[in-house]
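Sequence design from tokenized structure. All designs in this work follow the same two-part layout: the structure record, then the generated sequence. An example of the structure record is given first.
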């Protein structure tokens, strides 16, 4: 078992994790059809994100929530999708990785899933309230 303590280890982990995601009947359509993820662009970004989170690498400079908010506005993420994403993440970790970096990744993934869900659900409620407030009645 190795730890997630180097760029190469993180990159390998993300590759394995995405193999699971893209083989999953619940998540694959979300990534490939709804989000229309281009893996050649997406995977390097996700790897950079996790290198930033785990190693302090500063090559990731995007705003993760903006992208997810746009996808959620087309088709809201479900509780089942969050749970499956986290399950696959943790299964991928447990299969090949141990150590402080792997445990930090596990805790971060849990926090990310929870915070993203809360943030996106809050955005949906706010948008709905605005739409209702300014709805034109006939």
């Amino acid at each position: 078992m190795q730890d997630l303590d180097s760029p190469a280890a993180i990159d390998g982990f993300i590759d394995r994790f995405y193999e699971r995601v893209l083989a999953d009947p619940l998540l694959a359509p979300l990534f490939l059809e709804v989000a229309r993820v281009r893996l050649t662009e997406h995977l390097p970004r996700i790897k950079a994100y996790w290198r930033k989170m785990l190693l302090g690498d500063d090559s990731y400079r995007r705003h993760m929530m903006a992208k997810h908010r746009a996808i959620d506005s087309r088709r809201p993420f479900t509780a089942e999708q969050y749970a499956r994403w986290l399950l696959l993440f943790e299964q991928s970790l447990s299969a090949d990785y141990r150590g402080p970096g792997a445990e930090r990744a596990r805790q971060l993934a849990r926090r990310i899933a929870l915070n993203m869900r809360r943030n996106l659900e809050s955005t949906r409620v706010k948008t709905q309230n605005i739409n209702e407030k300014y709805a034109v009645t006939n």
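The two ends are 65 Å apart (CA to CA). We note this feature because it recurs in several other targets discussed in the main text.
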